[in-house]
Design a protein that fits this description.
Elements: H1 3-30, H2 36-63, H3 94-114, H4 123-146, H5 157-161, H6 169-187, H7 203-222, H8 230-258, H9 263-277, H10 288-303, H11 306-310, H12 318-336, H13 339-342, H14 357-387, H15 394-399, H16 401-406
Helix pairs in contact: 1-2, 1-3, 1-7, 2-3, 2-4, 3-4, 3-6, 4-14, 6-12, 6-14, 7-8, 7-9, 8-9, 8-10, 9-10, 9-12, 10-12, 12-14
Amino acid sequence: MEAGGIAWVLVSSALVLFMTPGLALFYGGMDRSRNVLNMFMMNFWCLLIVPIVWVIAGFSLAYSGSGSFIGNLDWTLLSGLGIDAADAGGDGGKLILAAIFLGMFAVITPALISGAVADRMKFSAWAVFVPAWILLVYCPVSFWIYGGVWGDGLTGWLGVRGSLDFAGGTVIHVNAGIAALAAVLVLGKRKGWPKEGHPPHSMPLVMLGTGILWFGWFGFNAGSAFDANGVAIQAFMNTFLAAAAGGLAWGIVERIRDGHFTNLGVASGIVAGLVAITPGAGYVSGMSPIWIGLIAGVICSFAVQLKFKGKFDDSLDVVGVHFVGGLIGSLLIGLFADPAFFGSEFGAGLLNGGGATLLIEQIVANVVTIIYSFIITGLILLAIKAVIGIRVSEEDEETGLDLTQHAESAYNIGEVTMGRG
């Protein structure tokens, strides 16, 4: 890689890292005031534990080797990763760069699940769940799509079949979204839900978090080109347009349906558009990202209501936005993928003369991911429940997780006194 490409991937890595604090603000603002620090810590726990797990074994399991289903242990403990130049038998640090960049994705993926289990999960259970989920769910699914790509060539069985996932629609959003559904089914409903409303306690935090996520997502998608090139430029533009279209579509739906154009709706629509464009950011062009964002904004605005009909308490709409949005974006690759623009090695979408082959492969990859992630996530949580328990007591839930789990309060507001004294 040239110096410019290396610099872009390093900057992109920092942008993706910044998304996790942005997600904490986004979720924290949507949560209740007595639980906002708990939500922050659930996200920051991912920043603390996942990098360690990633360099010990995660990166190797997710990407190394020549198998079809899981990586080997060649890169455990960063073994074999160095910065020697090619003439000295090395790769100049390319594998370390990949470990850095892809590790940021590994950090934010379980953090997405935190929004579904807000207000009622024991932090000790979350602390155990995150590394277990990374190793048992995230790494295998990553290998199925991308395995071998950093070695002698793609070997992961879904990738070899022809499934496309540019920056993590299936691996990250569908995977985390369906895991969130499994988690809320095992965990159970919040006390008083759905009779009691749980509105966001701070919309300014939500909007700030949305802005940070949008900003970081340029590294998420455009950085996935793994170079400073034309694909990165197109992915950047696609990310910009899909987010705008998603926010616009959700806001218009709200205005027609409810009579108001709300901040929460626009923020949710922006995120839905970002999620939907992620799998196809490097495979579509022209007006396609706008269509993808519009479709995701409309469908996700209705999908977030499914939890009431299905009676599953997805606290902050992870299923409705990330699972549904990621699934929409991944399947729409089968319609909009444009190999004439990005190269013949990519399959063509149905609307670009490729027939239904790519769409079928997208369906297969997502169905397999949904089934695997749902089952294994459920088993992990049931095991944790049996050993240490996963849910706080009703008293702790009523008091708030900030105090009961962390002995802190987000808002220490003293008495307001009048006069000079």
